[in-house]
């Protein structure tokens, strides 16, 4: 068993044991904290597919986080007010069934990623970075200016959404759902990176000429990766909205995009479990350093700067050495 | 005379005032090695790019395997069977030798849109990849990262990947460049045997290799084909001598 | 809707555009010459604004505030370049993005720690407050006109510098072939620091000028930074001309869009909906413009192919 696999399992175990212990000790705050980490991990896993495996520096990934969140917010708010979203040409009612919301969130995020990707991937390099950032900003301003769902103040959802017969207001049960989704996402990613698609995507990241010379189109590979990536981050957004029972335009902001990127970098770009480590580390730092100072972002900035300038591949890079190529 | 496998018809390409390709018409027939030589700046790279698909000619056509492929992009032409190797090795440098070759095998079959199965466990692809590696002599280095290969080994890997495409024609841009005496000799005998698998359009500067390998030679200068013929014809051609050596030595 | 109102809004659009140009010019120079994408450019804008506000509060002099903002931004630029940016020239874009994002965090929180979360205010000087009467009887804010004139002057200065001076030649050469310029003995290190400082000063100037119209607060730089990115995408990287035209396009589209779109929608909807829909669409107008340019010119209007 490689060091990387050991670290993967250790992380998963940690993320499971802490909430269980907290549940036994009746410390719901810790459960919620871990749930946050798990949701951020899913968001980061989404970005990592585009960024780490595809080499696409998407600075606007919060768009998908926000779309997922607002999908949940819109559907749930209509459910709780018993008014339909639309009556013509189709009757669309709100819902607070989680599986339906997840599917909707994934679908809309994927659509948005397809549209944004189709346009942005016509460019490369810095243009791509700037364009993805700009699209993120566009959604942010749109969300602020559209008053129907709270505008700048955001939207509160009073009750957590439903899942089968479980009580979603109980922290440990909601955590269990999120953890299960994390496992599913990790499983999907592990298969994806080892698949033919994964091999081709990685090659496209390294050398687009090479990929063309073997008869494949890099654009299609990148667009597919970007779409799946957006869908995963969108799911995280829906979960995040459920966790906080609140959606606001901040979910679209450049700061959020930056944070998601920080999760990926801290853990190690291009490692399947990297974002899990990164998100956990981020939550830990937020909790510890935030307790020390109101201005803890300065320390976060310094740490990030250190990791970028001197660190070798984030946590995974430092603990497990050079990545085994595509095992 | 059978139809050529690859043919260019009056290819013209200009960059502003610079005419990089002027009415270039070439053919490549089955079983032959057709070498393209010429002084620096003659437009050889531009020509290769127009054949491989990276550059659209201003006018003229590229006919491959009986089909006009002028409007197709690089990937489509590669799928049709143009196996190209690059002048400056173009490999997936983080991947191992085996992974690079698997990419080629995968690319040909076109089944990259599979998301859940493990590609490195695909026995059919592995067999194809191994066969290509055996043919070029890199089988023992299959687990080495491409970035750690020697220059000569990278050349071999390029050819191996091209082989997995089961191409109908090879487009090779200076395969001998940077190889030492031993490497060149090996590459020479390898290419000699390869022509029977698929014909080769070869750009080269190494004149010894060219005269030893080529069935036909075309000479490119200032974007035009100034001479085309057998080895002995080209060797004796005064126009060719002038182009390479300057007018004083032509007499 | 009167013609005077339309002209006034057009002038506002130009003022906005000119300010965006100041931001975009610095960014595009740094990218063109050094190949570096700098997210912390917005922080330099903010530093210029804060330096000006603090100086103005302390001395009451607008002129001193102007000097302070230029100096503070330039010095911050030089420090940042020497300590951090220098290490990023050879790195890939992801590393540059992350490192400069880290700088945003440090600068923003640092400023918040030094000055608090409440906005500061900067007043335009006596001679520039109030209005001026322009041809055709248009009454316009003196200060906004001042901004437009300063912006145009800076643009002219930049064009002249790049086209006519030695530094300009070095910049243009550096944009084309970095290694060659270094091989020719130009002190690349000094050139880079200079270009970065110049970009920083321009950003600081923009921050200071706008600080007198809007408030001076932490986080004011990033929205402008992102707009500057839009300008660069539209205009083309590395092109000052592109930055100028792109900036004017963006400024006018945004300002006129916010002014005209609600009215346009008012023709087909009730006033309340028209305002809402108009405002929402207006907020997306420049991004739609960017997307449209991208479809036809993926490298921007004046970018190199």
Your description of this structure?
The complex is a heterotrimer of chains A (327), B (251) and C (305). Chain A is mostly helical and 327 residues long. Chain A has helices spanning 3-24, 28-53, 62-80, 98-120, 125-145, 171-194, 196-206, 208-213, 218-244, 254-267, 274-292, 297-309, 314-320; strands at residues 155-156, 246-247. Chain A has 13 helices and two strands, in the order H-H-H-H-H-E-H-H-H-H-E-H-H-H-H. Chain A has a two-stranded antiparallel sheet with strand order 1-2. Chain B has nine helices and ten strands. Chain B has helices spanning 44-52, 74-80, 97-109, 123-136, 151-164, 181-194, 207-213, 231-236, 238-245; strands spanning 6-15, 18-28, 33-37, 59-64, 67-68, 82-85, 169-173, 200-203, 216-221, 224-229. Chain B has a six-stranded mixed sheet with strand order 6-7-8-3-9-10, with helices on both faces. Chain B has a four-stranded antiparallel sheet with strand order 2-1-4-5, covered by helices on one side. In chain B, helix 3 (97-109) runs parallel beside helix 5. By secondary structure, chain C is an all-alpha fold. Chain A binds chain C through residues 51, 57, 59, 119-120, 122-123, 125-127, 129-131, 133-135, 137-138, 141-142, 144-147, 254, 258, 261-262, 265, 269, 295-298, 300-302, 304-305, 308-309, and chain C through 31, 37, 84, 87, 93-95, 97-99, 101-106, 108-110, 112-113, 222-223, 226, 229-230, 232-233, 237, 276, 279-280, 283-284, 287, 290-291, 294-295, 298-300.
What is the share of helical residues of chain A? over 70%
Classify the secondary structure makeup of chain B into a structural class.
alpha/beta
Overall pLDDT of chain A: 90
- End-to-end gap of chain A: 13 Å
Count of DSSP-assigned helices of chain B: 9
Helix content of chain B: 25-40%
Give, in order, the helices and strands of chain B. Answer: EEEHEEHEHHHEHEHEEHH
Q: Largest sheet of chain B, order of strands side by side?
A: 6-7-8-3-9-10
Major β-sheet strand ordering of chain A: 1-2
Overall 3D shape of chain A: globular
Low-confidence runs of at least 5 consecutive residues of chain A: none
Uncertain residue segments of chain B: 247-251
* Terminal residue distance of chain B: 36 Å
The profile of the biggest β sheet of chain A is:
2 strands, antiparallel
Number of strands of chain B: 10
- Main sheet characteristics of chain B: 6 strands, mixed
Q: In terms of structural class, how would the helical and strand content of chain A be classed? A: mainly alpha
The most extensive contact between chains is: A-C, 41 and 42 residues
Oligomer: heterotrimer
Radius of gyration of chain B, taken over Cα atoms and rounded to an integer in Å: 19 Å
